[in-house]
Write a structure and sequence with these properties.
five-stranded antiparallel sheet, 10 helices, alpha+beta, globular, about 400 residues
């Protein structure tokens, strides 16, 4: 695949050192590690290998990936591997997409309390859906879901929200029946919104009482319990944004959607337009426009562009993809088998035949870019080393 004209790594390499010096003491260690990983990704700094095509002789040098979850170049392969593992869990039912968004006021507080409030966002949204679904007035069933955290808007502003993918139904309370939701309708979003608001604000108050929230700048006054309670009061009456999109066209559409969302980062390389020491330009979508083309080009000061990207670096060890309810890891396989049996649905096709022609351990998954033949590694080199084998220039069409 040809290299993009401009990549995030190029911006970090060219303008990151000056930005780090200008912001020394105000940048977290995790953010600095992400910058370093992206700068080194697929360069000699991480080592690599030389691959040779067994069919046409094409040869190229490939450098190792940083595998950082915030790196735009590394998320494509990671998403494919994750989706292959999830394909066997898909059910032959409607799937729904529900989005839970935090109000802007709480998003400001979450910026300085990422681990606590992002975790609460996961917990409150999952509890909301499972509680309403279990209510006999609605579905009366135990359900499962996959939740993905995004912390950005299209302009890379701080906008924490959960994308939740939910099968359209669940197991009866005694586990003997599959209870399907109404075609095209999952759960009432107004009811979801009210419960989500209550659960999140109750959890937020508990965090405050336990002294687990930090306050900075003009929010420092909220450390006082009375001031915090007064600040929360309007939020208890405001409308919180929860919405459900139309159901997917089928399990295959769910996989296609998840492959775009699960491993997305704050900005992809394909959205970058230009960059210099003063300005970075990138494409974004203005969702205030109801009709027509929403795509615009935004220009930010280079330092502000770097800052906006780094505010979306997650705390170390924080999981941004979570499975809850029937799809929780501990019991997912057993629950999926039970549901398939109740739906009289066949499991995904798999081959039990022994692999008589195993892929050699040094054969790459990616085929030859020229002829599609198998690519084999003929040399590896370590960090900071150069390959001994030289790759000839790429052939071009006459």
């Amino acid at each position: 695949m040809p290299r993009l004209t401009l990549e995030l790594a190029d911006i970090f390499r060219a303008y990151g050192p000056a930005w780090r010096r200008a912001n020394a003491g105000h940048v977290g260690l995790g953010q600095l590690k992400v910058m370093s990983a992206i700068e080194a990704c697929r360069t000699e700094e991480l080592g690599g290998h030389v691959a040779d095509c067994a069919r046409c002789g094409h040869r190229h040098v490939a450098y190792n990936s940083c595998k950082n979850r915030h790196c735009p170049k590394c998320q494509g392969p990671a998403a494919k591997d994750w989706m292959a593992a999830r394909a066997e869990d898909l059910l032959p039912v409607e799937y729904f997409h529900v989005v839970f968004t935090l109000p802007a006021e709480i998003a400001r507080l979450a910026y300085a309390n990422k681990k606590a409030l992002y975790g609460l966002l996961f917990k409150a949204s999952a509890e909301t859906v499972t509680t309403i679904a279990a209510d006999p007035r609605h579905l009366g069933a135990r359900i499962g879901m996959t939740s993905v955290l995004h912390t950005w808007g299209s302009a890379m502003t701080h906008h924490p929200h959960i994308h939740m993918i939910v099968p359209g139904g669940g197991l009866s309370q005694d586990g003997t029946r599959w209870v399907a939701c109404r075609p095209g309708f999952f759960l009432p979003v107004r009811v979801l919104s009210r419960l989500f608001r209550r659960l999140f604000l109750n959890g937020l108050s508990a965090l405050h009482r336990a002294g687990k929230l930090a306050f900075f700048g003009d929010l420092e006054k909220l450390a006082d319990p009375a001031a915090f309670a007064a600040w929360l009061a309007p939020l208890r009456k405001a409308e919180w944004v929860v919405y459900a999109k139309p159901p997917f066209g089928g399990p295959e559409a769910v996989l296609a959607y998840l492959s775009r969302y699960t491993h997305r980062v704050a900005i992809s390389n394909t959205r970058l337009v230009s960059a210099d020491a003063e300005t970075v330009a990138f494409r974004w979508k203005d969702y205030r426009i109801k009709r027509g083309d929403r795509t615009k080009v935004m220009r930010l000061a280079t330092g502000e562009f770097i800052r906006r990207f780094l505010i979306h670096v997650l705390p170390s060890g924080f999981h941004r993809i979570r499975h809850c309810g029937l799809l929780a890891s501990a019991a997912r396989k057993r629950n999926v088998e039970t549901i398939r049996r109740l739906l009289d649905a066949a499991p995904p096709a798999t081959s039990d035949a022994p692999d008589t022609d195993p892929v050699p351990p040094l054969t790459l998954r990616e085929p030859c870019p020229d002829c599609g033949g198998p690519m084999r590694i003929i040399e590896t080199f370590r960090r900071g080393e150069r390959p001994l084998t030289r790759a000839p220039p790429r052939k071009t069409a006459a």
